[in-house]
Amino acid sequence: MPQPEDHITTIANADRFILFPIRYPQIWEMYKKAVASFWLPEEIPLQNDVHQWQHSLSQDERTFISRLLAFLATSDGIVAENIIQRFSSEIEIAEIRYFYGFQTAVENIHAETYSILIETLVPDDTERTKLFRAITDVPTVAAKASWALKWISDPDSPLPIRLFAFALVEGLFFSSSFAAIFWLKSRGKMPGLCYSNDLISRDEGLHTDFACMLVNLLDEKLTGSAVYRMVKEAVKIECAFSPLTGYIDSLHTDLVSMNKSMMQDYIRYVADRIITAVGFPKLYNAINPFPFMDMISLPSRTNFFEKRSSEYRLPGPTTTTSKSSLQMYATIVTIPTNTDH
C-alpha cells in the first residue's frame, strides 16, 4: 500500500483517478477545510447596503466602493481560468485536483457575489458596464489582470514559478481591496459588502496558503532572485492600483486611520508574509499599519438568529479548526516556512 508522502517528486500520476489511500494528507486536509467553508451568494443580506448607498454615503464613498468592485468582479475569473487551463491539466495528483476543482467553484461564487453587488448598488446601466469592463478600460486594473494572465499563457516558466505567481495574485493583488473593505467595516459601513468580504478574504487566504504549501512541497525549488523579482513587480502594480488613490485625491485630504502611504506599507507587509511563507527572508520588513486588520483573526460575534456567522463551518472532521486563513491578511501566516534555502 502506498505510504503518505511529505514532498512532491513529480506531478505525474498513473493512479490519478484513484483517491484512497490518501498519499498527501496535508493537501487533503486543505481540501477538507475548503469544503467545510462553503457558502452561497444568497446568504449575503444587502438591504442595509442599498439604503446606505442611496441615503447616507457620499458620492466619494460610492466612487471608492465602485472602484473596489471594478477589479474584484473580474479577478476571480482569471484565477479560475488559470486553474482550468493550466494547473488542473498538468497536475495529476488526485488530492491537488480535488482542491482545484472545489476552488474553481468557489471562485465562481466570488465572481457572482461581486456581480450581484454591482447590479444591486449601481442602478445606471452605463456605469455598471464601465465597472464590468474595468479589466480592459482602467489602466491600473488592466495592469493587474495583464500580470496575472501572462502566467497562464507562459509556456516556459516552471510550475513553482507559476504557483508563486498566483499566490501573489490571490494574496497580494486582493490585499488593498480587502483592507479597504475591512476599514469600511470598522466604520459601520455597508454591512452586506463587509460580510461578503469576511467570507471571500477567508477563502482567498486559504487559496494563498495552498499555493505556498505546494511550492514548499515540490522538489523543484524557487530561487530567491525569482521570488524577489516577482514580488517587486506585483507590489509596484498593487501600489499603483490602491483604491485609496482616487478616493483620497477627490477629498483633497488624508484620512487618519487609512491613507495612501499606510496602504502601500500594508501592501509591502502582506508581500513580506507571502515571501516568508515560501521560505525566504522578508524584502521590506514592513509593519502592519492598520490595527483593525489585527482584529480579523478573532472570532466574530454575529447573532446566529440574525445572520449566519462568517466563522461557520459545515459539519465534518475539520469543524474544530479555529484559525482562519483571514490571518494571511493580518499578522499570522499559517503555512510553516522552510528555512533550508
UniProtKB/TrEMBL annotation:
Transmembrane segments: none annotated. It holds the Pfam family Ribonuc_red_sm. It comes from the Eukaryota. PROSITE patterns: RIBORED_SMALL (PS00368). InterPro entries: Ferritin-like_SF, RNR-like, RNR_small, RNR_small_AS, RNR_small_fam. GO terms for molecular function: oxidoreductase activity. GO terms for biological process: deoxyribonucleotide biosynthetic process. Belongs to the ribonucleoside diphosphate reductase small chain family. This is Ribonucleotide reductase. The lineage of its organism: Eukaryota, Fungi, Dikarya, Basidiomycota, Agaricomycotina.
